[in-house]
Design goal:
Blueprint: H1 2-36, H2 53-86
Length: 96
């Protein structure tokens, strides 16, 4: 049982890290595009009342969408690697 708890903790930490990495990658990719398209610096703080609300909403939706896609791709790749290394599916996922 302790081994399963360690595996679950490891998988949870790994997926958390992948989510954070995906968000950072999305912000960097989209930040460059935002600047090149003439939007100036992208909104970094949704509470900044000096930025138009439409800019903040578009930025949030774009980063969230791209980060979600990247996280899904990274997690699927990590899942396949997990199965190769451990010969078991990641905790909480069906064999596949």
């Amino acid at each position: 049982m302790a081994s399963m708890d360690k595996q679950k903790l490891a998988w949870t930490g790994l997926t958390f890290g992948l989510g954070a990495a995906a968000t950072g990658i999305a912000e960097r990719l989209l930040g460059g595009a935002w600047t090149k398209l003439g939007g100036g610096a992208p909104p970094k703080n949704a509470a900044d009342r000096g930025r138009p609300v439409l800019d903040v909403v578009i930025w949030g939706a774009a980063v969230g969408g791209v980060a979600g896609l990247l996280r899904a791709a990274l997690t699927r790749s990590a899942s396949a690697t997990w199965e190769l290394v451990t010969a078991t599916p990641p905790p909480g996922t069906p064999p596949g």
